[in-house]
Amino acid sequence: MQVYCVFGDERVMRSKYPTIFSAVLERLGIKGKYVPFKIAPGQIGQAVKSIKVLNISGANVTIPYKEEVISHLDVLSEGANIIGSVNTIVCNGDILKGYNTIAIGFMDALNDAGYDLEGKSALVLGTGGAARAIVFILNWLRTSSVFVAGRNPEKTGNIVDCFGGKAISLYDLENNPLAVNIVVNTTSVSSPDESPEMASLLGRFKVKGCELVLDLNYGRSENFWRDLARRNRAQFMDGLSTLAYQSRRTLALWTGIQAPPEEFLKAIDKNL
């Protein structure tokens, strides 16, 4: 019996990782369990040590520990080292190796949707681990320009220093119309209940030439990113397709099995 898990704060108990992976493991005939673990602030190091102690076969890492977890791992993949964020841990004997499958999962999801990023302009909102992965892949896929908006100037500046693009203040969006083809939300908020301030800001945000709004979150009945897409007559995507594709990459790292993406998409459709 293989045991897999996901580490996060209290929001991990709402994660769809356990539902999706459990369904896929069963469909593929893999004897395994997938469980969420809520980790208290300052305890991610001890959680990582428990992987070896409890013989956990692999782990995911979610908000807010994707960057903090790095110092507790033995080695990083090239991509995770460049991005500076980890969402997947592979246990190989006594060695714990960190990977980032968010960037490639995002690329796979856009390819599946038939959206070509080359030559397009993009706005990324957020400054955490997911933002780093998305800004990295946007630049790697040859977008013409990438704007990064966040509340923390130091973090925003660090992202563009690492990967390229232009840092702007989140509050600049209120009064300065921005011309971009794709808007990507990497923050943890999507509904008015989660952030009345962000809902109000986006209600005043003017964007020109927008074709696609992609929110990495999912499962919100009210979603101000979807509202933004509607106002601009743009396509809207939530984060479930990205989740499916990044999970497929994660399973391959854990087991060596290259499961068809349809297995993860079916698991999402069936269980949500």
Task: Walk me through the structure.
The mean pLDDT is 94. The protein is an alpha/beta fold and 272 residues long. The protein is built from 10 helices and 14 strands. The protein is globular and about 55 Å long. 44% of the residues are buried.
Summarize the SSE layout with pairings.
Layout: E1 2-8, H1 17-27, E2 32-38, H2 44-53, E3 58-61, E4 75-76, H3 78-83, E5 88-92, E6 95-99, H4 102-112, E7 121-125, H5 129-140, E8 145-150, H6 153-163, E9 166-169, E10 178-179, E11 182-185, H7 196-204, E12 207-208, E13 212-215, H8 224-231, E14 235-237, H9 240-255, H10 261-271
Parallel strand pairs: 1-2, 1-3, 4-6, 7-8, 7-11, 8-9, 10-12, 11-13, 13-14
Antiparallel strand pairs: 3-5, 5-6
Helix pairs in contact: 1-10, 4-5, 4-9, 5-6, 9-10
Features:
six-stranded mixed beta sheet; 2 domains; Rossmann fold; 272 residues; alpha/beta
Which architecture of the largest domain does the CATH hierarchy give at level 2? 3-Layer(aba) Sandwich
The total domain count is 2
Q: On the 0-100 scale, what is the average pLDDT?
A: 94
How far is the first residue's CA from the last residue's CA? 26 Å
* CATH homologous superfamily grouping of the largest domain: NAD(P)-binding Rossmann-like Domain
CATH class of the largest domain: Alpha Beta
